[in-house]
Each structure stands twice: as C-alpha cells, then as structure tokens.
Amino acid sequence: MIIQDGNTAVHETDICIIGSGITAAMMAAHLAEHASRRILVVEAGAHTTPFAQRTAARERYLAYGESPWKSDHLDDQNAFGTTWGYSPSMHVGGLAMHWGGVSPRYSPEDFRVKSLYGLGDDWPFSYDDLDPFYQEAEERMGVAGEQGPPALDPRGKPYPLPPLPVNHNLAQLQQWAGNAGIAAWSTPSAKNSTPFAGRAQCQRCDSCYPVCPTGAKYSPDFTWDTLVRERKVTLLTETLVRRLEADARTGRITHATGNRTDRSGAPVEIRATTFVLAAGFVWSPHLLLLSRSSAFPEGLANRSGLVGRYLAGHRNVNAYLRLPLELLPGINAQHSLVSKQFMRPGKQSRYLRHDLRIWESSVGREPRLRGDDSALLLGDAMLQDWQRRAKGATARVRGYYDVLPDRDSRLTLHDTQRNRFGDPMPNVAFRDAPESAALRAWQEEQLRELFRRMARAGNGEILRMENSANDLGQEHPTGGCRMGTDPTRSVVNAEGRAHDHENLWVAGAPTQPTAGCCNGTLTFAAVGLRTAAALAREK
Ligand SMILES: Cc1cc2nc3c(=O)[nH]c(=O)nc-3n(C[C@H](O)[C@H](O)[C@H](O)COP(=O)(O)OP(=O)(O)OC[C@H]3O[C@@H](n4cnc5c(N)ncnc54)[C@H](O)[C@@H]3O)c2cc1C
Ligand code: SF4
Asked: Distance (Å, rounded) from C-alpha 360 to C-alpha 329?
C-alpha cells in the first residue's frame, strides 16, 4: 500500500526485503510459497538489460568490448579501500547478473574449522543442517552437477539437473589429474544441462560471463520476473534505503527511510512488521552503521561492536601448464573440473585447505600479430602460425585457499567520500588473522608444489604461476554481520535474526563467520534460505 505524505511516498507492507540480489531472490521465492504475508523488495538500482536484448548485447561485447550491462551501478555509490573481490553492482539482480554460475558447496569442515584445526571460528550450525537449504537453492536456480565420491562430496539428494558434459578437452584433463592421484569431476554450475524452468539448454557458446544470451545460466531477474508477474512480491526499484529507524525502548525497527535514485531524488518511507537486510556483503553492514542514532550511537545491531568486522574471503594460486595432449582450444573453456579432496584434510600439523579446479586454456596458443622473430604476421602467415601453435594443450589449475578473518578485517564509514545525499561511503580493509597470515607463504608454496607435481605426472611443464592479484580484496567476500549464539561475539543468531532487534534479519554473505575455500554464492543463498524458513515459521 502506498500513501503520499507530502513529498514522501510511504509504503506499508508485512515483510520488507532490502536488496534484490540472488540471496534476496531465493528468499522471496521461498517466502512467497510459505508465508501469506505481503512482501516488498526495495532495490537501489534500476532494471538492467532485459533478456530479449542479451544476444545483441553479447554481440556488441564480442565486437567492441562494450559492457552488456548498461545501467548496473550508481555512480556515486562506491566502496573504497579494495580493488578486487566485489563490484559495486547495484541493479535488479545485483552481482549475480554478472556471475559465472559456478556453484560448489562448502565442505563439512568449513563449518567446524576451530574444532578440527584450532583456528578461526566454528559456525553455529553444521553442514548437515544446511544440506536441505543447499538442495533448495540448487533446485530454485537449477544446478547441473555430478555427484563426486560421496566421502568427498556428501549430499542428501541428487543434483536437480544432470552434469554439464565432460567434453573431449575435460575428459583428457580428467585422466591426467587421475594419473596425478586426483579425483576430479564436472564442476556444479547453475547452467541448464537440459531445458529447465522455461529456460534454454546451455549451447556452450562460452560467454557465461559477462553475459549468457540463451538464458541457460541462472540469474535473479528470472525469479523477479516470475514473482512480479504472479503478483507475489512488489519490487520497488531505484530506491536507496538510507536509514533503518529503531524504537529506542523496544529496539524494534519501525520504518526505513531513503530516497529515489532517479532524477527526482524524492524521499521514501517504508513501514513493515519485519525487515530483511539482503543488501550483500558491503551494503548490509554499511546500512547498519549508517543507521546510528542517539539511542544506538554505534549503529544498529551493534551492541557487540562487531558490525563491519571479521570481513572474510579467500585467495588463490593459479598455474598454466603445457601438457603433451591434443586439446581443442576454446571449446567451452568456461566449464571446468573440480576436486574436493584438498578441502577435506584430516587434522593437520599445519593448516591448509583448498579447492582445486582444472580448465582447458588457450594461454600460449592464442593468435598473435608477431612471430618468434618479432616480424609482423598478416593474413595466411598469421593463420599458419596460429594453426601450428594451437596444437598441443595448455591447462589452467587453481586452488582457492582459506583465509581466516581478523577482528580488524573491517568495513567502516569513510571520513570524506560521500554520495549525493551526503551519506559516508564504506571503507573496506581486509586483514588475515595473525595465525592465518603466518601460514600464508607456506600454503602458497604447497599449492605451487602440487601444481609442479601435477605437471610432472603428465610429462608437462609449468608455463607460469601467479597468486591472487593483490591483498586489497578477497574473492567471494563475506562477513561484517557474523552469526553466532553469543550476542557478545556475533551480530545475528544462527538463523540470521539480529540479537538486538527482534524484527530485523540479515541474510546470506554478511552473516558468515568464515568464507570457505570455493565460490561462495550457493552458500550465501542456502544460508539466506535457512533464514527465510525461520521467518516463514513466524506468525
Ligand atoms: C564477474 C563475476 C563473476 C562471478 N562468478 C561467480 C561464480 O561463478 N560463482 C560464485 O559463487 N560467485 C560468483 N560471483 C560472486 C556473486 O556474483 C556474488 O557473490 C553474489 O551475486 C552476491 O549476492 P548477494 O545476494 O549476496 O548480494 P548482491 O548481489 O550484492 O545484491 C545486493 C543488492 O542489494 C542492493 N542494495 C544494496 N544496498 C541497498 C540499499 N541500501 N537500498 C536498496 N538496495 C540496496 C544492491 O543494489 C544489490 O542489487 C561473481 C561475481 C562477479 C562480479
Ligand atoms: S556456455 Fe553459453 S549458453 Fe551456456 S551458460 Fe555459458 S553463455 Fe549461457
């Protein structure tokens, strides 16, 4: 319901979800099925490139390098202090309009690193507790996957879709990995291996990111389009929530205030019985810190002083190897093999856990303008050079390793950078816990040695090795509103409800105590669905 109060549009609803990313999309779909309450979703950005325009957008990307996502951000809404690991993407669907769809689960050890290895923190629930929500997220997105050896890859039910095929290239690499003693299988991906949910089967055209032209790769706009068409949610776009207001006595959130991000900049107020902060890893803690008041001078949900702290993520070591195989460059190069055998070590004297991914690569085999003698290559000469060098095989391997977060791995309000409304922007500074930092050189050398061993097992050679681009950011970032049972050591409880505000919930990535060592979005969505299930049980 909308009431006009002077210049301010006042919206009234039961559940207000802030943000329209993948976590919010999963949660809204669950709530629409399990709770008969009105749902209003508020998104700071606009709708982005519609599905019907994605084939043309892909063509322009390939021809001119033009971004397929024209209106994917707000110019003045940026986080500072980090260069990698997140994008300031603010539009309907959030970051997962750009994502690659790679959807592995964390391993059971991720939830108990403290108990098993004596470092970091345990989660307030186990892998088995999350298994049904992993399944639900996989079914809602449509994840195609191959069951790995059950001891390494436990799951309660089969994947919803059959695996993406292990093609000629990957089959050869799978055999090579096997010779090195590594069990590897088709990486689970939110890409249709068969037609699914009214969307096409993957055509292996290999532009998954930046853009999938066929709709085979899941993106949250598909869920929003359905929910809006079926009138199950109201989606309020181009509306930035700038403050949550809490009753000083009860702590209950009474309303949210913000402004339109269109030209009007008009004020907006949202009244709801329940607020769900699903604004992603940067903007969720940021909004809580912005919402400080005389009753809550450190911001909301911040009695522990932990809002914005324990930012987590992971880093990687990457290698390119030349192998004496015959691969066909460029055939579905965005699909890969995965192994979980290094995510699940037993108790160790020194701590290292990592995932392992294997791709066919064209590195060292791309077409080039100059030959070995630097002479210019044109026309047939270029083609012949390429044909000669395209023979053989290059593999890319990568291990994401755990980085355990420090209390001072932190998001704060920036001293000088402000948006158009005068709100301070986030400043992000990642930091490893000292015990994690102390292991880093050894961990990276262990990974390099693994890759050398893999090269030797295939009579190959290492072409090049590299670490994550820099230390300013981490991949698949999480944290800032960590969950736990102790209100002095966490921001939200095990279900995502703020310890300090009974009708405020934080969803997904920001609530995670650690970030695991593989792509995290499936876990963000599963944790969000666990929160949605708890919310749906509320009367
Ligand atoms: C190029 C690329 C490739 C990737 N590939 C993979 C992959 O293959 N596998 C994987 O696991 N992950 C991948 N990721 C990461 C993945 O996209 C993100 O982890 C995921 O999308 C995060 O979802 P989210 O729901 O937590 O938040 P977000 O996507 O950040 O959504 C938050 C939304 O909230 C809105 N919002 C924020 N603040 C406010 C406010 N105050 N008022 C109103 N609205 C607000 C934002 O505009 C945004 O739309 C990739 C990311 C990129 C950029
Ligand atoms: S290979 Fe092509 S069709 Fe398949 S998911 Fe990627 S972009 Fe979409």
From this structure: 7
Q: Are 137 and 218 in contact (CB under 8 A)?
A: no
Dihedral class, residue 231 (left if φ above 0, else alpha if ψ from -120 to 50, else beta): left
Ligand 2 near 216 CB (within 6 A):
yes
**Contact of 247 with 502, CB cutoff 8 Å:** no
Who lines ligand 1 at CB under 6 A? 18-24, 42-45, 87, 90, 94-96, 98-102, 209, 240-241, 279-280, 283, 287, 476, 508-509, 519-521, 524
Where do we find the tokens 């809204």?
Answer: 28
pLDDT of amino acid 3? 73
> Residues 6 or more apart from 119 whose CB is under 8 A from it?
113, 351, 404, 433, 435, 436
What is the C-alpha to C-alpha distance for residues 531 and 483, in angstroms, rounded to an integer?
Answer: 11
Distance from residue 521's CA to the centre of ligand 1 (Å): 8
- Per residue in 39-82, pLDDT (tens digit) is 999 999 999 999 999 999 999 999 999 999 988 999 999 999 87
pLDDT for 88? 72
Has this prediction a pTM greater than 0.70? yes
Q: In sequence order, what DSSP letters do the residues of 287-313 get, joined into one string?
A: HHHHT--SSSTT-TT-TTS-TT---EE
Whole-angstrom distance, CA of residue 400 vs CA of residue 402:
7
8: part of which helix (H) or strand (E)? Answer: strand 8-18
pLDDT of residue 514: 95
Supply the residue whose CA is at minimum distance from atom 6 of ligand 2.
Answer: 208
Tokens standing for 137? 């997220």
What integer pLDDT is reported at residue 87 of this predicted model? Answer: 60
Whose tokens are 């666990």? That residue is 530
Taking the CA of residue 90 as reference, the ligand 1 atom at the shortest distance is: 47
